[in-house]
Amino acid sequence: RAKADGRHRARHYDKLMDEERRQRRWLAHELRDAGVRGELGLAFQPIADCATRRIIGQEALARWHHPVLGEIRPDIFIAIAEENGLIGEIGQQLLADALSIAAGWPTAWMLAINLSPVQLREPDLAERMLASMAAHRMAPDRIEVEVTEGVLIDRRETATANLARLRAAGVRIVMDDFGTGYSSLSSLQQFPFDKIKIDRSFIHGMGQSGPALSIVRASLGLGHSLNIPIVAEGVETEQQWQTLCEMGCDQIQGYLIGRPVAHRAEAA
Ligand code: C2E
Ligand code: MG
Ligand code: MG
Ligand code: MG
């Protein structure tokens, strides 16, 4: 009986896996033409100076609006794009779109772009990005590239070379989701990051009893002693803002300042 149950459960599990695989294959197929069908776009979320709350730039966040499934989360479709060799082309298009939109912003604002580990493994990524910036007349020192520590894990020579090339041209390299990986501290030793973005899970936990507040305080101390600015993501309340300011946080991002806002292409 137990054995039969186990077999039944295994079969059920296999069915679920098949279903999931089919879903992903279908999504991959749909993603292939999503760009030309105009389903891919960008949302922009502001980043502000902590003390004054003045906006200093915006982060570009990828969006996929599928005609049947609706909004598909970027962490899902970016992974599918990576698994199917589509990320290079999609990333290139999103960068070009982001640059042409940012061309209309105040020149004091920076543009933050997310890059995944797979993107950074393309040997010519940095050159292509710099060429795109030049074509859009965007100074590299207005660009920030956000990466997670995953870029420094395997096949990291190419990733590091890309980051170093971008950095040499003036692009700032930001460690995103700081504190959530397995080796946040050692990655700070492996690459000279220009800024640290504390993961929103710690900001969320700050108000509760528990270690989050101490972790945030320690991260701010770390940033100060490394002499690099710290940005807190996921700031939703006045209370969180106040606490962060008192502890000397440099920049904030989150619903308190502004939600990501989808950019709508203007009718030509
Ligand atoms: P991320 O770079 O850490 O982006 C922050 C995520 O937190 C965004 O989710 C944003 O909408 C959300 N968020 C911002 N403020 C708040 C807040 O106050 N409260 C809460 N609860 N959430 C907030 P989103 O847009 O779903 O993006 C998820 C992840 O997908 C991003 O994490 C990034 O890793 C990835 N991603 C997005 N766009 C791109 C892209 O163009 N290229 C690559 N490679 N990855 C991207
Ligand atoms: Mg980011
Ligand atoms: Mg983040
Ligand atoms: Mg994230």
Topology:
Elements: H1 2-32, E1 40-49, E2 55-66, E3 70-72, H2 74-83, H3 87-102, E4 110-114, H4 117-120, H5 125-135, E5 143-147, H6 156-168, E6 172-178, H7 184-190, E7 195-198, H8 200-205, H9 212-226, E8 230-232, H10 238-246, E9 251-252, E10 261-262
Parallel strand pairs: 2-4, 4-5, 5-6, 6-7, 7-8, 8-9
Antiparallel strand pairs: 1-2, 1-9, 1-10, 2-3
Helix pairs in contact: 3-5, 5-6
Bound molecules: ligand C2E and magnesium ion (3 copies).
One magnesium ion is lined by residues 59, 114, 146, 176.
Description:
The protein has 268 residues and is of the alpha/beta class. It has helices spanning 2-32, 74-83, 87-102, 117-120, 125-135, 156-168, 184-190, 200-205, 212-226, 238-246; strands spanning 40-49, 55-66, 70-72, 110-114, 143-147, 172-178, 195-198, 230-232, 251-252, 261-262. The protein contains 10 helices and 10 strands. Helix 10 links the parallel strand 8 (230-232) and strand 9 (251-252). An 8-stranded mixed β-barrel has the order 1-2-4-5-6-7-8-9. 46% of the residues lie in helices and 20% in strands. The structure holds ligand C2E and magnesium ion (MG) (3 copies). Residues 45, 61-62, 73-75, 78, 94, 114-116, 119, 146, 176-177, 200, 233-234, 236, 254-255, 260 line the site of ligand C2E.
